[in-house]
Amino acid sequence: MSSSGISSAERVAAAIALEDTGRAVLGHSIDSFAARYAGISQEAWWFDHAAADAALVKTYEEIGPWDTCLAFAPGHPFAFALTAPMRVRLPGRDLPPDTPMQFDESEFMTADDYATIVEKGFHEFLAGFLPRVGIEPADVPGARAEIVRHAQEDAAAWRERDVHLLCATKLRLPFDWFSYARSLTGFMIDMFEQPERLIAAMDATLPDMLADTLQRLGSSESRGVFLPMARGSATFVSPAQFERFCMPGLLRAVEALVAEGYVPVLHCDADWTPRLERLRALPPKACILQLDEQTDILRAKEILGDHMCLCGNVSPQLLTLGEPAEVKSHCTQLIEKVGAGGGFILGPACTVPTDAKPENVRAMTEAVLGKG
Amino acid sequence: MAQQLADAFVALDRDLCLTLVRERIDSGIPVTEIIDESRIGMGRIGDKYASGEFFLSELVMAGHIFGECTKLLEPLIDGQAQSKLGTIVVGTVAGDIHDLGKNIFCSLLRAEGFDVVDLGVDVAPERFVEAVREHQAPIVGLSCLLTTAFGAMRQTVTAFEEAGMRSDVTVLIGGSIVSERVRDEVGADGFATDAVVGVRECVRIVEAQSGADREESP
To answer: Which residues, 6 or more positions from A157, have their beta carbon under 8 angstroms from its beta carbon?
Structure first.
């Protein structure tokens, strides 16, 4: 997409800096949809990197282009599982071959583990935890190496197409990590019944997680770090709980990443509308706030438009059940209103659903390019 | 005194709730009255959630406390406290294994006074039909998180039609991604994106049905 003389990476950088991007920017998270569109199974998407990459290329060439992509094809079947404290259920292995990946969020961690983390450190705890979600610690280094190898090869190939990799790695902060590992119910009860133990464990965990993240980022060209953050939203916890349990870790992590020159991509699923003011406490012009359709993105523009780049938020229902004209009109409005003055990347809410209509995904491209 | 237990619920004070329930049991207060008093507290918590004063975490904690109190009361029920509102069949539809929202919905339904038949996750259409038939449930709740499950929701509604039961059961769909549009697309009767709204819709439906039944009675 460099016909205007500016590369996609430069366009994304300009969006983060709230500067003029020349034209609207399109950022996709398009994984399982690409598999379905290109006619490969979801199993192949996870277990056959070459087939998955070819599916993404076909999707890009036929219904793209786009400027940036949250991630490329999975470099290993563990690619999601390594940062998800849940039992990941993969197509072909745990699910029918053409079913999207899902996860089983059970109570894989007990409240007693908080004390273990404080006493022995997160790394030692993690080594004992991984088998509970079906991962042998001995398999992790090999999986990591394969992920890095594919990521480097993919980044080089996609650079030739002028597509920028938005995120080089993922950091699931302790607040979200524990809320999945303990199960949502267990975690919420802990917030009421043993807040000090929970906070002590989160405080003990964050430095190890940050160090691991920075180590993984070492050789990466992309400066983006994906922070999946649903559980701190107003959908789940009260403002007081957000302030006490979530915000301190978020602030510390974002400031540490920004200080090292990285770009936190705050993937905020669920309703963050009441939290938008608080996000002004994060460093300015340094993050991307990725919203799904549950947050009022126009309100986000009012509150954060001069502070951080917004990304989103075309709903999964619209992409699945809507019509192309409707999608294009919606995207055009987002570009005009949220993109006014810069600082906006058009994209799906969370991700493009597996069964989105291809013509609707193409309508997003056309809205950005002003075609159709 | 009657408000004390309800107030303890609203304060989310688990220890006080359990103490008060034990005191009431020891005083010989009927189990039905103790449950009713707890439900008043749960109702007020639902109101606070609906008004934006409480959040999901408070609902979950309240459901946890209600469950703990129920454990004390269950051995004593012995036919005293029958469900007042009827039975609801709930499950996550075929192809989807997410159960977070469904479980919260089930917990609140029980607290409200419904009997809940929870079919679990990845539930085939015919299992919904069998369960509704077996339990004579007037409402079935279909949960999902994935857009790919919309087809399974539609197939489940079709299964009720093919069984000749569609007019006997109200089909509600739930999940953060459902909407009026999805409801129409799959042929359901109602939808809810949060558990409290879903429970209130269930109460409204059974109350409307019992009103209609009364009108039809000779």
So the answer is: A53
What single-letter DSSP state applies at residue A276? Answer: G
Q: What is the DSSP string of B135-204?
A: HT-SEEEEE-S-GGGHHHHHHHHHHHHHTT-GGG-EEEEESTT--HHHHHHHT-SEEESSHHHHHHHHHH
Distance from CA of A53 to the nearest CA of B (A): 22
Please indicate whether, in this complex, the C-beta atoms of A237 and B182 are within 8 angstroms of each other: no
pLDDT tens string B105-162: 998 898 888 999 999 999 999 999 999 999 999 999 999 988 889 999 999 999 999 9
Global pTM? 0.91
Report how far apart the first and last C-alpha atoms of chain B are (Å, whole number).
Answer: 41
Which residues of chain B does A192 touch, with a Cβ-Cβ cutoff of 8 Å?
12, 14, 57, 61
Cβ <8 Å between B182 and A104: no
- Measured in angstroms, the CA of B10 and the nearest CA of chain A are apart by 14
Question: Model confidence over B42-58: pLDDT tens digits?
Answer: 989 989 998 999 999 99
Q: Which residues contact A215 (CB under 8 A, 6 or more apart)?
A: none
